[in-house]
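Structure tokens please, single chain.
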Amino acid sequence: MSKSIREIYRYPVKGLSPERLPRVALAADQALPQDRRFAIARAAVRPGDPVADGWQPKSAFYQLERDERLAQLRVTFDDASEQLVLFRHGRQVAQGKASDPLGRTLLTQFLTAFLATAGQGAPRLVEARGFAYSDVPDPLISLANLASISDLERIVGRPVEPLRFRANLYFEGAPAWEEFKWIGGRLKIGGATFKVVDAIERCAATNVDPETAERDLNLPLALQRGFGHCQMGLYLRVIEAGEVAAGDPLEVVA
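Here you go.
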């Protein structure tokens, strides 16, 4: 079976739900467009701090590792209007132009009530400009092997939803864990070429079921016990721009 991309996802707001894409145009040395463009900053990160002007560690934000309640929300983001819409249990609960201060205020009003931050100060929806609020400071794209996730299911004894790993690209057609042999090499996917930077260390965010918002597994522990590491997926850097679509072949070129 040849290796190919099955699914492509972006995460407009760090910690919130993904949007599935049929295809995406990638630029060299850039993250996937609109991926982690917004984040929910904790009240401790005050106006005047560099949170909106540069990368910050995930501890500055609400995110699934600490705040599993976020998995109750669904997000849509329109590139043209920059309208961000939040849904809970299938019902729209907030909407605003996320790139506009007034729109972010409307969205933040809901998030403050939803996150029950009384006494902790209000969270703030913040926008990244020229970077992404990912877990690493470099502009990388994440890739996960569906066969490796299936092998992890063997260890935990139950299905593991691949979206727990919040990757941008999911591929099939390679044996489990073969992807770790590619570190330091290059991949060709669709019209783009990538440098394989490193494996991704996994944290407690993966323990949260993205459908139920329940913390029902310990996947870092399962990875450690089953395979002697806590890694799942790869970080890639785009070195040659191009378009990638679901179904495109993945080729190891070096």
